[in-house]
Each structure stands twice: as structure tokens, then as C-alpha cells.
Amino acid sequence: MHKVLCKDMERKDFDIEEELNKLPVKPGVYLMHDRDDEIIYVGKAVILRNRVRSYFRASTKKTVKIQQMVKHIAWFEYIVTDSEMEALVLENNLIKENQPKYNTMLKDDKTYPYIKVTIAEDFPRILMCRKVLKDNARYFGPFTSGEAVRETIDLLRRIYKIRGCGMKIDEAEGPDRYDKKKCLYYHLGQCEAPCEGLVGREEYGQNITKVLEFLNGDHRQVIDELTGKMKAASDEMEFERAMEYRDLIESVRKVSQKQKITDTGGDDRDVIAFARSDDSVIIQMFFERGGKVVGKENYYMKHAQEDTTEDILSAFLMQFYTGAPFVPKEILLPCLPSEADLIEECLGNQKGSKVALTVPQKGRKDKLVKLAGENARIKLDQDLDKIRRKRERTEGAVGEIEKLLGLKDIHRMEAYDISNISGFESVGSMVVYEDGRPKNNEYRKFKIRSVMGPNDYASMEEVLTRRFEHGLTERGSDEGTGKFSKFPDLILMDGGKGQVGICEEVLERLGLDIPVCGMVKDDNHRTRGLYYKNREVKISHSSEGFRLITRIQDEAHRFAITFHRKLRGREQVHSVLDDIPGIGPKRRRALMKAFESIEDIRAASEEDLAGVEGFNRAAAKSVYEFFRK
After folding, report:
1. How far from 388 is each of 65, 187, 277, CA to CA, in Å?
2. For residue 442, what is the DSSP state?
3. What is the CATH number of the domain that holds 354?
4. Which of 63, 256, 493, 572 maximizes the CB count within 10 A of its CB?
């Protein structure tokens, strides 16, 4: 990849026809954006000009998915690469990073667990990780079971007393380098407290050597060592300790059976098959290591109905294996994916040796692929009802709301609420739902600045004005993006006609055209219907649409209340301390740092208070007597 090209003008001025004429006759990757600047599709091309132009050519036959996608394209950008294989790898990385709506996506992006021994440290640790880094540590795996990894680590820590903390320990600094007391693991006999200098680096290192031998498969030595200790304890009539060794021996045997470490010298292959419904795919994988099937996993993919089997397999292989720490030398499949040669080359380069994509016709390999297919079908049948119910609660519920209000293409909904107690610290909340699911990372909270007293309408006007003015500013900036730049397809107000009217006034003043709907409540503060276009719309209480509206209303209320409580608690602490004679800002901060709550300060003795940083006897007495007047 040697060159990055994208449009250099404001998004609102992007002329698709003009930009199509600038496309190069080179391989690369293209990214399609919608009006909210979301990447909705990532694709690769041998010749960018031909491929990208085909989306906008009326004579080109397009699938239903592509037709829908093209309707939402506001602008595009592209990256030129040196080869088709570079484009394939870059396309996959961008798909993983951006999760575009119209790409065939692997939903369960699982990774294999590894055991990591930090041998570069003076006192190494044993950890579970999902990525292999170049950090001078020793890695063992991949394992097919996270449970087996955790059991193995726990066992090795107990047997060899390997520390589990992340404390940085340098033997050269001596045993007095820490003021902390020995932790619980020392008192349980599971750590020898190298942090306190109670074990030297050499002795600790001998145990790490035994750990490495165990992870390399030498379980017999550990069992023999524990058996000797068990017999010695029994001979000394220390039966309780002997039972502990017996239990450890049993744990070693169980772990050695569960460990499924990849032996790169044996026959390593993955078996892949799948079953599909209209828009869902269950991928079933068997992992064969050293000639034995050692585990299985299933993965869920979302696809369009018209996607071919070959395209689905191609998307899965690239998304699953690209960047993975381990690739087997052979992958068994029910059919070859599209661009099989290119994928083989890509995975081979990653592995450092040849990787074969094989479609077996008979024998044991063929039976494994068929067995994987049967398992995938069983899993899909089990999941279809669960998937259907989930969709009814989310996309289905949004569809009901669309039909009820006479709207189309509702993707993003925002709901607002105000919280205060007698006007104290009024706050506003904004919660976001996309396709019927909460988008927690896009929730926003507002501390009301311009309104004094319990005026919900004025507070709501401030919140909405700030929210959409921020959004318009961000959209007009050079970047064109920001935390407020996405606008909703529907706004939900936690109230009826009054709240809707306030929102519509703000939108009209800012020149925005967004549908606004009120959530009308009954006497028990529960939603009874929707207020839209100056009329109340009845909604069945047994419908998924009603349940979604209720969830959104509750979430907006919960988010506002949580923020309000936090502010109120903070303000109460400050207001009380402000009234103590002789206690200024610095000492107030010291008190709040030293004690967790106002009640702890109230209960403190004069001696405790005098021990606070920056306090003398007079200051301590002032605080102590203040709470006892």
C-alpha cells in the first residue's frame, strides 16, 4: 500500500459523479459513507474505477442488498494498494474495525486463549491472554478452552506459589522497597511474597522452570513430585497436608486431560461447515491437533439472502484467520470460497508456510465436514427461535413504531428526560437506541446551566438547544464528525404535548426537520400512548413496540436520576464542609480525600482528624465540634 486518496472537500459539497471520474485504474479498497458519516460498506477491487462506478450505473444488475446500500451513499473514499492481495487484507481489517452495516459480518469475533509466562521479569507471572506480542514472554497455546487455561494457571500458582499480582518487583531494590503488608495469597500459602523479599530470584526462577516444563507437556514429573510429598506427609501423620497433595495430583490429571495445546509438528487442521437461513449463518468448526479432534466452536454471521455460499465462506475465512496468532496448515471446507487462491496465499504468508483450502470427497475428512454441517444445522435450528424473538424485541418493535406513526427507515432514536428535586441541580439525559438496541456509549448527560428552579420545559429547551447546536457545529467543521454529529431519525420526549412542542420549537429555530413523538403517561407514570402530530396515538400494551417505548422511557429516566444523585451527593458533601469555621478549600479537599463519606467525617475522632494532611489540632477540633453542636 503506497498511497491514500480520499476527497478533500466538505462532505456536503461531495459530487459523486465528479468523484467517480477521478477514480484510478488501480487495485485498492473503497469505503462507502452515509449522510451521518458512518461507513456502511467496505469493498476491494482489482480496478477501483470499474468496481466503484458499477454501483452507480443503472445498467448494472444489483442485488437487493446493494440496491439498498446505494440509496444511502452520501460520499465515498478509497485507498490505493500495490496488489489485489494487499487490498484483500486491508479490506478485512477495515471491516473488522468499522463493522459496516452492509458487509457480511462475523458477529462472534472469538479468539483463542494463550498462557503467557512473563520470563523477562525478575519474578515472572503466569497470565491468560488473547494476543501474542513481541514482549520477550513465553506463550503456550492456542488452547480451545478458556476454562482449561484458567484451571491450568490456578493449579500452577498453587503448586509452585507463583505470584498473581501485577506489582513491579525489582530484586536490586531490596526487601524494604514496599510499605504494603503481605497479601492474602501469602497467608493462604499460594505465594511466597517476593514483594517482601521472602524468596530470592534464583529460587523463584527454579519454580518458573518447572512451570515451563509442565506447560511443555511434562506432567509426569509434577505428579511424581507431588506423590512423594503426599507419602512423606502421610508418613509423618500429617494427613490434612497429605489430602491437599492428593487433591493437587487429581487436579494435575484433570488439567492434563483438558489441555489442548497446539502441537505445530503434528497434523493440524480446522474443519469448517455451516447452515444458513434467510439472513443468518451458523459456522461450525472442529479443531484437529496432532491428528485428534480436540475441540469445537460455532460462530454466527449475518448476511444478505442473495449472498452466495462461496462469498460467505470467503468473508468468514478472512475475518476469522487474518491477524489470528495461529493458522493451521489445512482447512477442510464443504466448497471452495470465492478467491480461494488469493486467500491461500494471504494465509500462507501469515503462517510462513503453505496453507491448503481443501474440499474432501471421501474418507475420514469428508465425514468430518459432513458431521460439522450436521452440527451447524442442529445449532441453527436451536437458535432460530431465539434469534426471531430477539428481532421481534428490537427491529420488529421499531417496525411496529414506524407503521404506527407512518414513518420509514427509523434507525436511530433519541429520548430525553429532566430530573430534579424542587429545582435542585436540574439535569438532562439523552439516551440513544439504534435498531431497537441501546447504544450506551452514545448516551449523553447535561447539567442545566441557565434555569433556576423546577422548570422542566425551560430545562428541556436548554438541553435540546445545546445538543443540536453542538451537532450542527460538528457537522460544519473540517472533520465533520463528533459526539453530537449523528442526528436521530425519531426523537422521543418523556412527556406529551408540552414537551413535544418545546422540541419542535428548538428544531424549527435551528432549521432541522426531525420527527418528534411524545411518550404520554398515565396516572401511574407509565406510557399509555404516543403523542404525534397533535394527536394521541393508541398503542397496544401487549405489542413489542409498546415494550420498546417503555424500555426507552425507563432508560432515559434511570440515566437522568443516576446522574442527578451523583451531583446531589457531591453537592451535599461540599455544602456541609463549606460551613465549618476555619476550613478552607484545601482542607475540604484533604477531608474528602481522607474519608469516603460525610458520615465518616462526622464519626471521626479529633485524633483521626488531626492526622489528615494539612490539619493541626485547632482545625481538627473545629471539624469535630461542628458536627456535635
Report:
1. 20, 52, 12
2. G
3. 3.30.420.10
4. 493
Cell readout for 38 is 458512518
Among candidate residues 211, 237, 258, the one where a domain is terminated: 258
What span, in angstroms and rounded, lies between the C-alpha atoms of 627 and 606?
11
pLDDT recorded at residue 1: 41
Stated pTM of the model? 0.50
Record the cell numbers describing residue 623, joined without a space. Answer: 471539624
CATH of the domain at 434: 3.30.420.340
* CA dist 610 → 38, 574, 585, 607, 624 (Å): 57, 20, 17, 5, 10
Q: Output the pLDDT for position 180.
A: 53
564: three-class secondary structure by DSSP: helix
Does 603 map to a domain? Answer: yes
Domain shared by 134 and 199, yes or no: yes
Residue 263 lies in a domain: no
Place of cell 417505548: 549
Provide the grid cell at 199: 524468596
SS3 call for 398: helix
Helix (H) or strand (E) segment spanning residue 557: helix 544-578
Cell representation of residue 335: 466448497
Question: What is the grid cell recorded at 619?
Answer: 482545625
Same domain, 488 and 519: yes
For residue 15, give every residue at least 6 positions away whose Cβ sits within 8 Å of its Cβ, in sequence order, or none: none
Same domain flag for 153 and 247: yes
- Note whether residue 265 is domain-resident: no
Quick check: is 87 in a domain?
A: yes
Average pLDDT along the chain, 629 residues, taken 10 residues at a time: 40 75 89 87 90 85 81 88 84 84 72 80 85 79 69 79 79 51 72 81 84 74 77 78 74 57 58 84 82 75 78 88 79 92 89 90 89 87 75 88 91 88 69 92 82 78 91 79 87 88 94 92 75 89 90 86 64 60 83 76 85 87 78
What SS3 class is residue 293? strand
